[in-house]
Records
---
Amino acid sequence: MYSNDELYEYVLDNIQKVVFPEELIRLKLSLSAFELLALMMSEKYQAVTMGSLAQGLSVPMSTATGIVNRLVKKGLLARGRSEEDRRVVTVSLTETGWQMMGDLKRLLYAKIDRVRDILSAEEFQTALELLHKLILGFQQEGRQPQEKVPQRRIIEIE
Amino acid sequence: MYSNDELYEYVLDNIQKVVFPEELIRLKLSLSAFELLALMMSEKYQAVTMGSLAQGLSVPMSTATGIVNRLVKKGLLARGRSEEDRRVVTVSLTETGWQMMGDLKRLLYAKIDRVRDILSAEEFQTALELLHKLILGFQQEGRQPQEKVPQRRIIEIE
DNA sequence: CCAATATACTTCGACAGGCGAAATATTGGG
DNA sequence: CCCAATATTTCGCCTGTCGAAGTATATTGG
């Protein structure tokens, strides 16, 4: 049985070993976390509107515009107009965008396979079940105070 | 047994539920991730030199200076000079700094207690063991290519 | 013992990214 | 047709990061 203090120390000492590798993946592709998420959403939903993209990333539209601009400049995303409503802009992966997502997924899956190597099949299964239980638990908790909270809290400084 | 594709989908769909709350903690205290880590290091090692702080955060010294400047302005850290070597600057928590770290830890520990509530004692124990096994496994892996890599890779863009 | 070099840190200037407010374009209702 | 509503971009400000040059102190070789 471990105390919270011990857990805190443990995580503090080891967090870099877990988090830093992801950082490296991002840097190798020279993509920010937001850009990565935008690509992932674009892959999942084919044609995403700027609005849902902004909502998915929990950023204001002006920020989403910047993110997409950079990805367009990098040749990974393409803008298009909706036929039904010509105000809405949709973004979708370009050919190179699809390739990059393929590369990225290969990297991620290699990572997952590393986990499969380290843990036994039963341990892997157990880890997933615990993770799932945690996600469900936290999801439950988040329901209550979600009523009228806008997409992001504003905190004033000084 | 889940495929990597299924796992990818699952994480993509649920990542916000896990990551976002931490974001909120940071925003409530109006501290950046780096600032938070700097405070944590200062608490753990009492008097930290700018050099080791920069190394610990994996940022160049000029960035570390900025981080510490902000924390000093916020009244959480204080600068001092080493007696043995008057070039080195040490930072340490102020009284309010200690208080803030206390508050922060209370928040984190409440989070951990939430986890303890969601999982049974045995499940909690199992989760820790699996986490530990993973960290050890990845640590092993990281040994080989670490030889001459400087603290940060430089990637050129375009 | 002291000039040259090394070390620890800060300052400066450039640049990227995030965001609110204003601007632009399109829709839909009266 | 006109006007409010909606979707998005543009603009300007601000924060944060970082390399290079600058400052202060330590160390070392002659």
---
Amino acid sequence: MDLVFKALADAGRRQLLDALRERNGQTLSELCDELSELTRQGVTKHLRLLEEAGLVVTMRRGRHKYHYLNPVPINEIAERWISNYEKDKLRALSALKAALEEES
Amino acid sequence: MDLVFKALADAGRRQLLDALRERNGQTLSELCDELSELTRQGVTKHLRLLEEAGLVVTMRRGRHKYHYLNPVPINEIAERWISNYEKDKLRALSALKAALEEES
DNA sequence: ACCATAGGCAACCAAAAGGTTGCCTGTCAA
DNA sequence: TTGACAGGCAACCTTTTGGTTGCCTATGGT
């Protein structure tokens, strides 16, 4: 799960995920067009991290490499991690509020 | 939102959040006990990032500094970002499956 | 057969992250 | 009032990260 969090920490990588969510199965070159501020190698590196985190699955076909979004890891973070915080949200908020009021 | 993602990218910081979720309003020294593998300064630095991301709110009271969890930013990520991926989950999964099958 | 296209590999570089040590300040309690 | 306790500041160091450039390989079209 650590790899997923780390992968999500970069805005460029999140942008890549968004691009794939918008249109799945894009090639490297196509993704490079969307992140025009980076060189191809830069994009490649980001994609490798995303792949290592399991967020993207790739398929080489002839001279093209297609990238597919895998939504499962994000889903797991939502379920296994974030939901714990949702659960305690109200309790934490009221504790926070109480602490801030006491500060006066 | 970028700060929140970056803050969540480190396992030590997530551990600090967990500690506060477990017991809210802990002092720096108490939190240091839970992350015994780090020095106090190390913990302080992590807490500063968490605070800058809005995930933790602090209150100095005499010679103690109390730390409170703020669940709102995590909630926002869940709602504004992750939910987009949940929405497209089935579609992305079937695209992925189709691509993998075609590979044979 | 050839050349343009799509991508990979490796070295390199600068900046940021993670962590430490040493010392200083403020606060409470005996 | 003096000492122990809680925390802050700043310098420093090492590793990781984000990015680049240069060159090499493989594939497909004409």
